[in-house]
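Recall that a protein's primary structure is simply its ordered list of amino acids. Everything else, from secondary elements to tertiary packing, is in principle encoded there. The following example makes that idea concrete.
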Amino acid sequence: MDTFLLTFDLIGTFVFALSGATLGVRNRLDLFGVLVLSFAAATSGGIARDLLIGASLPVALANWYYLAVSCLAGLATFYRHVEIDRLRNPVQLFDAGGLALFAVTGALKALDFGLAPVSATLLGMLSGIGGGIARDVLVARTPVIFQADLYAVAALSGAAAVVVGHGLGLPLVPVVVVGVGLCFGLRYMAIRHGWRLPVAEHRES
């Protein structure tokens, strides 16, 4: 379980770091600013998760390879942003991937620490959305989670799928694949087709 969680955690770290670095390049940050934004986007959700479950020290701060992975993604984006920009909506695409991976690993780690299913689901969601919130706040942009897109809902769905599969005693790999696929699929469809949650109508008095 530990090796599996670490692998997915590092993949999610890399993907979220790409989203942070891409946004940094688009906002004309210098190299240091891009690296800071990539690290913040990659690790904020995991740090919040680890603090809430009572880990002695957040894994992203205790192990150097989280910093190395996020800096690698930041450097690659800074020097190769033209190639990355050729992807359609690269920030949103990388963000959707990081959201899915972190929601799933967050829920699994919470379960591994003995948390109840509801708590594990909520922590999985927090793991997924934390990095995106930190990234957007650092560039003075309204976080995506507050813009009515299927963002937190997608993370919550992916985490819930993992918690349910774990509770039923299903094999780990298929459960993870379903959780990641569900979260990424919902977020991608929201981006592509404009799926949104209802927004209250506001009338000027």
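The first helix runs from residue 2 to 26. Residues 2-193 form one domain.
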